[in-house]
Amino acid sequence: MILALVLTTIDQLPSPEESILDTRPVMTPLAFRSFPSAEFLAARKRVTRRQNDIMLPLGPRVPSLVELLLHHIQVSPESLGARQYEEDLEVRNLLHLLQNNTPFYHHYDVELAGNERSRRKQSHPGPRLVYLTTASLIVVPANLVAQWDSEILKHCRSGLRVLVLKSKTQMPRARALASDYDVNI
Question: What is the pTM of this model?
Answer without folding.
Answer: 0.75
